[in-house]
Amino acid sequence: MNDIAVETRFLHAIELGLGAWQWGDRIWWQYGRTHTEEDVRAAFDVSIAEGIRFIDTAEVYGSGNSERLLGKFIRESEQPAVIATKFFPFPWRLTKNAFPRALKHSLERLGAESVDLYQVHSPSPLLSIDRMAEGLALCVEEGLTRTVGVSNFDPTQTLSAYSALARLKVPLAANQVHYSLLNRSVEKNGLLARCHELGIRLIAYSPLEMGMLTGKYSPRQAPSGPRAAQYASLLHRLAPLLKVMTDIGQDHGGKSNGQVALNWVICKGALPIPGAKNAEQAEQNAGALGWRLTEEDVTRLDEASDQLLGLPKT
Ligand SMILES: NC(=O)c1ccc[n+]([C@@H]2O[C@H](COP(=O)([O-])OP(=O)(O)OC[C@H]3O[C@@H](n4cnc5c(N)ncnc54)[C@H](OP(=O)(O)O)[C@@H]3O)[C@@H](O)[C@H]2O)c1
């Protein structure tokens, strides 16, 4: 690796992003039935207008359609966005050259010359950390991405990735993992603390727990698609946590449950990237900014979530 200064600080200055898995994905998110291109364009426009410029996509979202839509919206709006996309470690393309090759395909779909963050979507037993680091470093060297990251890496894998990249003089900029009031494993397994120590931005996916934390679903009002089965049992236990969230939201001038859920993630020092299907959702989610939960609020939310999850108090 030649001496290329890779600057990752910009990621730490971003408080809130936007997830684009919903854009073009029919199987999980029912694109075409619950929302259309017009809707997701409006979600993009509203987010940009609200100052949210960090948008997360992946080559596999909607089989490339999420990247295509995002590229189209950026070009047509002529608005600067901070783009994060992902490499999926399919077993048939695990050489180091596969990384820049895949990223070039993503860039074609995005209509961009480079992205701001290129993440490995998940660890793979077939992909050694050293090979992965070499592939990511090539992407930086070729000017295809500003920074690199991983996703779904546990604390040990994160440390290995950090060290392997450091040997190539590339910083590990981010680890994107599941983190919400209903999934706090990153607190319990030490990943959040480790990322803070090492200057790795922890990006929180599913921060609304796929919509469950907005309060709009209940055992009687189940979500559509695969979420119905996944969250059936949780929805029976959710009411006490939602009640605490609603009370706290009231104390802050009527913030919604979703806004409380996102603000809680921000208070923990992570970057939430809620997915939005339309303008209304994007607008609501943007309302997580501009105010802060108190330390006492965070403690009350932690306790309510611990109780629900059946975890010992921290
Ligand atoms: N790296 C990974 O492995 C990975 C995994 C998952 C997600 N991600 C990324 O993280 C992003 C966010 O995660 P996610 O999409 O799984 O879950 P999420 O952000 O927790 O939930 C998104 C869903 O919640 C509902 N929603 C959003 N805002 C709302 C609002 N204001 N009011 C009411 N409902 C609202 C919408 O679904 P309905 O309207 O249908 O309820 C929306 O599709 C994704 O878009 C993707 O970019 C990454």
Please report which band the strand proportion falls in: under 5%, 5-15%, 15-25%, 25-35%, 35-45% or over 45%: 5-15%
Structural class, by secondary structure, is alpha/beta
Q: What is the rounded distance between the termini?
A: 43 Å
Rg calculated over all Cα atoms: 19 Å
Tell how many strands the DSSP assignment holds.
8
- What is the helix content? 40-55%
Mean pLDDT: 96
Shape: globular
Instruction: Note the total helix count.
Output: 14
One letter per element, helices H and strands E, the order comes to HEHEHEHEHEHEHHEHHHHEHH
Query: Which parts are unreliable, with pLDDT below 50 for 5 consecutive residues or more?
Result: none
- Main β-sheet, spatial strand arrangement: 1-2-3-4-5-6-7-8
What does this structure look like?
The chain is an alpha/beta fold. It has 14 helices and 8 strands. An 8-stranded parallel β-sheet has the order 1-2-3-4-5-6-7-8. α2 runs parallel beside α13. It is globular and about 50 Å long. The N and C termini lie far apart (43 Å). The model has no long low-confidence stretch (mean pLDDT 96). The site of NADP nicotinamide-adenine-dinucleotide phosphate has 30 residues, from α13.
